[in-house]
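Colleagues,

Please find the record for the two-part complex below.
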Amino acid sequence: MDATRAEVCATACADSWDDAGEVLASPFGLIPALGARLARLTTAPDLLLTDGEAVLLAEPPPLGRESEAATAEGWMPYRRVLDLLAGGRRRVMMGATQIDRHGNQNISRIGPWERPKVQLIGVRGAPGNSVNHVTNYWVPKHGVRTFVERVDLVCGVGHDRATGAAGRFHDVRVVVTDLAVLDFAGPDRTMRLRSVHPGVTVREVQERTGFELDTSAVAETRLPSAEELALIRGRLDPDGLRYREVPA
Amino acid sequence: MRDKLVSPDEIAGRLRSGMTIGIGGWGSRRKPMALVRAILRTEVRDLTLVSYGGPDVGLLAAAGRLRKVVHGFVSLDSIPLDPHFRAARQRGELAVAEYDEGMVLAGLRAAAARLPFLPTRAGLGSDVPALDPELRTVRSPYPDGEELLAMPALRLDAALVHLNRADRHGNAQYLGPDPYFDDLMCAAADHGYLSCERVVPTEELLRGGPVQSLLLDRTHVDAVAETPRGAHFTSCTPDHERDEAFQRRYAAAAADAASWQAFHDEFLAGDERSYQAAVDAAREVNG
């Protein structure tokens, strides 16, 4: 049973939740959602999952069928999420329009503040998430426009800026992309290439990254197990929505 | 108990240019769109808008009514960005204060409690303080000595919210899954203005949902307007879902001035009744 790239990405995302314990999982994007649900059924049985709105679900629903899920185990409207995250009982995997070697992330705008070249969604919860609980990132298309020397605006806080009260609960760990898994175990907590997905070379990742990566110890991203593949294909994503984010 | 039932236009008539207004809902969900459309029929401008933003921001920005938007995001949910807000920003027309979602919450809570600020960790280390030079930090007076962001109160001249049910006195009920921050918006405001899908006698409120679904009490509400489908095209479950086809039309109309003028002429040139009739007519044409 050969795993597809999307399935390798989903299990890499799942691995980022394995020590989360009893916290609210907030994955943004299809592959991160698949990863969190896979973790919930395998290594992280205590995760709290939502329907994407205000309901906590006792069992992980298939991707795209959240409204059909049967058993609610709780109520989690936005105001509770904002209070809960400040208390630390949450973990997020967010997107990043730009990210730098220290893990500073931007989803607000490209270009000057007074007149942006591109207005994006806004800082959203990134500043608060990144100084309050574990924050990881998902980039579905690894490229030099995303992995930049310097982000245009720091929304999510990186390791170089996590000092004082901003550093107390700061815990940015991994960036999972369609090519690789990166962490911040490089010199001075800079980005390091931890593993490349099967079929991807270290050179390819470096060429598609706008700054120098630490490539001193690169492994190959693990393949999903037979059990994980069965859960992804048969239970969590029978409609194949994962291929909308990472084709094949 | 006072009778506060008025028309949407009467509510809009109580607003003045230069005011700071909070709008309830979240993204493209339960926005008081009939009240926003009523503002478009007035001459009110130079508004400062505080919002977990959606098409309320986009519509008012496209009409040139905004001086500044205070927000954590502006999104249509199923369409990630509001193109009208985006276009206004990219033309350099619109000032913004962009805060973390939790900072907006802290600012509203401070205003509701008549505090000058509330300390928060959110925003520290990010570029948010650099974007707003008026933001200050405060040091904990306790032995930890931590330096935290002092989020200033977001005091509002008026709040506009839309709920499912209300009585004529301003007691109001939400029947969907999320209260958003509507009660807090009203508590942070000098005047709270409410629209609702249906006005019912007080004794009927609890037929719709449990007592905890009564989100707003009348102390925070100055006027009530009955506006069936008044959140259109945003969602107002369980009364109506988001009108995704209409939302796509609204977004596509941002392409150029001519498309926006055509959209305006078809939907926004008349009153709320003609808006709803035009929405029905468009639905029949498009199936």
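The mean pLDDT of chain B is 97.

Comments are welcome before we finalize the supplementary table.
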